[in-house]
């Protein structure tokens, strides 16, 4: 069998230069939509069936590093300006700032929206050992800080089958699973909660994915290796 390119989505057809993309995310609720983020401060929503731009927004004041969908028409971005902003396609002129970094000029690099409870999301700060968990019902308030990594965190993923479990991984070669169940109040006192499970890889972990089909499997990659954890 051969793998062939289905389509090329290009929003700069009249220019030989293309601004680099930083991330893209498939909309699970509406598979014909994907969202992309770029260093030019914009985000673009594509209709991959029609091969056209659905919407393009100036999402932040600085480079946009990641995107996550929270439903059919709701999505969020993180940026070099240190903020998390939520957009709704029904009102493209406005956005809601859910969180702003307490550390000036500290970019937010990655973002994950809870697949089972859309009230919660989590984000990673650049060159930080900390993961910030947010409850979007209480904008600007940190719900939890996960602070047990010993080096910069690179990746995170919520459990596809549980609203209270999240996995994080970083330059300390650790993949940590955290349980946030039963928490009705913010978990920031005393340095936050401890992880319930930990795995040490052979080198810095660059990325991780939690399988939605087999929810007891987590994939991590480091150096030139891919490992499946169970």
TrEMBL record:
It holds the Pfam family WD40. WD repeats lie at residues 146-188. Keywords: Repeat, WD repeat. The keyword Repeat applies. SMART domains: WD40 (SM00320). It comes from the Eukaryota. Transmembrane segments: none annotated. PANTHER family: WD REPEAT CONTAINING PROTEIN. This is Uncharacterized protein. It comes from Taxus chinensis.
